[in-house]
Design brief:
α2 crosses α3. It is built from six helices and four strands. The longest helix has 19 residues. It is α/β, with parallel strands linked by helices and 194 residues long. The chain is globular and about 45 Å long. It has one domain: 3-Layer(aba) Sandwich (Rossmann fold).
């Protein structure tokens, strides 16, 4: 497969299926840009596929050109920082959507597995905060010529991986291994359903 001319960005709220999407795209033939710093654990047994440099995106965007042709995971709140990066870059954003109640439950379960205290904020308040943040980022993405977005529903990815793989393949220019992408989805790892 020829390298893609754009940067494939996987984004969404925390615990919205971004790691699964990175694994799915890797299986299809898009290499992930990752440094493997964050190891797999009970919350993500197949790994997180993250890049530490993403956390410093506000201060350092020099690495972005090396992401061309690859998939990189960038949390929703950092997407606007890409606008300040090098000129001439194009972004295809796979935006993961998951019911916010599941996101909050999954976040709390992950913290519990790590032995960390969860935020003392009530679930309803956290859900509203996440929903507001996500809506703000989606509004920012609208009408930006350098960003093309494909929204993927996490429950649908798990229940209909073949159809989702076909849609992603079309969005990302064709040439991906749809069967391998569908096989990368393990329904047993969909926990905290609501």
């Amino acid at each position: 497969m020829e390298p893609l001319p754009w940067i494939t960005v996987v984004s969404g709220l925390p615990r919205s299926g971004t790691s699964l999407m990175m694994q799915t795209l890797a299986a299809g033939g898009i290499p992930p840009l990752t440094d493997a710093t964050r190891a797999a654990d009970a919350s993500n047994p197949r790994g997180y596929l993250e890049l530490e440099a993403v956390k410093r995106l506000k201060l350092d965007r020099a690495w972005l050109p090396q992401a061309r042709g690859k998939a990189v995971k960038i949390i929703h709140l950092l997407l606007p920082e890409l606008a300040g990066g090098p000129e001439g870059l194009e972004y295809r954003v796979v935006m993961m959507r998951r019911p916010v109640a599941e996101v909050v439950a999954s976040q709390r379960a992950m913290l519990a597995r790590q032995g960390k205290a969860s935020a003392a904020v009530p679930d309803a308040q956290l859900e509203k905060l996440f929903a507001d943040q996500f809506a703000r980022v989606e509004r920012w993405l609208e009408g930006r010529p350098d960003f093309t977005v494909c929204a993927v529903d996490y429950p649908t990815l798990v229940s209909a991986p073949t159809e989702t793989a076909a849609r992603l393949n079309a969005f990302l220019g064709g040439g991906l291994d749809e069967a391998a992408m569908a096989r990368a989805v393990d329904p047993a790892l969909y926990r905290e359903k609501r």
